[in-house]
Amino acid sequence: MKNRLNIYWKYAFASVFAAVSLSCSNTKYLKQGQMLYTGAEVKIQNDSLPKKEKNELKAALEENLVPKPNSSILGLRPKLYFYNIAKEPKKDKGFNYWLKYKVGEKPVLLGDVDREFNRKIIENYSENKGYFNAKATYDTVSKNKKAQVIYTLRPGARYSVSNVKFQQDSSLVNKEIQSLANKTLLKSGKPFDLDVIKNERERIDNGLKERGFYYFSPDNIIVQADSTVSKNHKVELNVKLKEDTPDLATDQFSIDKVIVFPNYNIQDVKRAKYSVPMNPDSLSKYAYEDIYVIDPKHKFKPKIFDRALYFKKGDLYNRTNHNLTLNRLISLGVFKFVKNEFIVSDSLKHQFDAYYLLTPRQIQSLRLETLGRTNSANYAGSELNLNWTHRNFFRGAEQFKAAVYGAFDFQMGGQENAQNLFRAGTNVQLSIPRIVAPFRFNSSSAFVPRTNITLGYEFQNRTQFYTLNNFTASFGYVWKENARKEHDLKVIDITLVSPAKVTEKFYEQATTPAARRVVEKQLIFGPTYSYTYTNTMLSKPTTIYYKGTLDLAGNITGLVTGANVEKGKEKKIFGIPFSQYAKIENDFRLYHKFTEKTSLATRFIGGIAYPYGNSEFIPFSKQFFSGGSNSIRAFRARTLGPGSFDPRTIPPGTLLDQAGDIKLELNAEYRANLYKFLNVAVFADAGNVWLINEDKDRPGAKFSKDFLDEIAVGAGVGLRLDFSILILRLDLAMPLRVPYYEKGDRWAFNRINFGDSQWRKDNLVLNIAIGYPF
Fold this sequence. Notes:
Elements: H1 2-25, E1 36-44, H2 51-64, H3 78-85, H4 95-103, H5 115-128, E2 135-143, E3 146-154, E4 160-166, H6 172-180, H7 194-209, E5 221-226, E6 234-241, E7 254-261, H8 266-270, H9 280-283, E8 287-288, E9 291-293, H10 303-308, H11 319-331, E10 335-346, E11 351-360, E12 364-374, E13 379-390, E14 399-411, E15 421-432, E16 450-462, E17 466-480, E18 485-502, H12 504-509, H13 513-516, E19 522-534, E20 542-553, H14 555-561, E21 572-573, E22 576-577, E23 581-593, E24 598-611, E25 662-675, E26 678-690, E27 712-722, E28 727-737, H15 757-763, E29 765-770
Parallel strand pairs: 1-3, 4-6, 7-9, 7-11
Antiparallel strand pairs: 2-3, 5-6, 8-9, 10-11, 12-13, 13-14, 14-15, 15-16, 16-17, 17-18, 18-19, 19-20, 20-23, 21-22, 23-24, 24-25, 25-26, 26-27, 27-28, 28-29
Helix pairs in contact: 3-4
């Protein structure tokens, strides 16, 4: 034990020595008189400021100082080191160029720092935050060819707002400004803050844009600050319209004509094919409802623009409808560029014409794709896709997509008896940019609602075992309330699975009814609905993602036919028993960003599928699975559960996918960026699947009150190579809690033995995948 400790101390000493050597070695490359700039610190001398306020001011000031010192990790500067050791390249390419200028980082020297400029930044920023008498000085501290600049700020007392006035006059625009005053961001008693004043000007401008003042600008508003009318470091704010505000900015405009060019091209404008504005006499033949669609070749049905455009003749201009119209035109998916112009048509009546200049995308495209792929069952392989897309199928911006594909997959590190998969198929989809239904559907969203119709067929061959024919069809709607909320309702979703060939070898190895259900004929139909909420696109420290799915199969049919498999009343359609069940699944994720380079991602999955009526079991394709690269990574895909069922009791060579009717899973992952594209992660996963009913072939599989004692736990570390176009993920995990071990012996800590090669083979699981797990 003593010898082992001595070795550890030697390694520790060697690591510290190496780190110090690496840190010091950067300065030896400096020329005579040069000093490495190590950063700046701002010290605030004001005992009356609260500690929190002082820390916030200090952090903001240091963030604004330039330049930033060389990046460091634990006090070391490896990028600078690589820059220094690399030879100056003769060309802008090659290994030396890559090492010096891509991996490396040029030294930031004290001579690069304009200390007087930074001093003025500190004073100006402080004054903008209400410290009107701020004074700053600086000093330089140097040692061993390294230099740090210390800035000392004496901010004085911070001024606060005593009163806010909105100056009145008789103009229409001032009347509208007065109506916005009750929601002002400028509050009495709050500290003076120039950023808040800027936001207030933007708020007033946005409000006026909603009331028809298209040509108004935030610069037309001035907020005067007067510190002479009050004592005790108070300031009075006076919000008023600038005297030199243009007359056009004070006029309230309404829409005269709405004119659409759906085949607009900048080259056509240069050739004078289209003229803006157009002669009113030439517009009449293009009239449709209250708009004019200039489409001589009739490439588009005019009604698609009537649905997309929110402005009508006589409407008062407002920014909301302006943006909604542009977003809806873009979301049609048929236009590459969408440009909008407003041109005054009657200055006395304050009216302008709205022009929409739309450049179509390529209407048809044919694309051949070759893909490398992985899935949650640890299968990897390749796929070849041929896709044809028509973006204006019936001249109403309908998107028609047809694809044929073939794929070959093989399992990496899975079950010894796993077989390769060959898949080939075709699918078509027609997406109509409106709700096709016997009822009226109104949406004020920026996203166009869609009706989707799909048909598909897939031939699946699991070599040496079976071949299956899979037919799918669906009809439904997708609509978004806004960028965060999306609904997906399939009124009817049909799946038909029909085995074409099943080998004797499969029946020899699939010895249980559960294992043989994969080759049973399956007819599944019914509605499905999913709701998605996410704000992960926002630049907030904490964001969430939620998706809830409801799947109801055969419910009305089962009710009408009186199906009851338990009483021997199994009903069939076309000779196939139809499935009847209710399934719900919830996927909740929370992301918290600590810094720009570190974050925590968590996920909870909870789902249940309940068979009844015409079904005793959930169809194999609709069951839950656990384990694999996107689930509990310490267990191979579909080898965990259900419950405490022990897969070691299965005779060697037996086929069994360990599926369940109930799923609970919790994942947590700490993510950090090491260098550009290189990211690391530390993760922990927990969960399992269970059955609703007893299964005599799988004891312990049924969900019970002891379910918490049957939770599997795994943990590990991972590398993520983020190449922008794809993320290659490698996760090494090991089980910490195994639910099928004897009670009291399920935690695996006492069995961990990294020195045992057999233990490593059985317990260390390497997952290779593309993309993040969640």
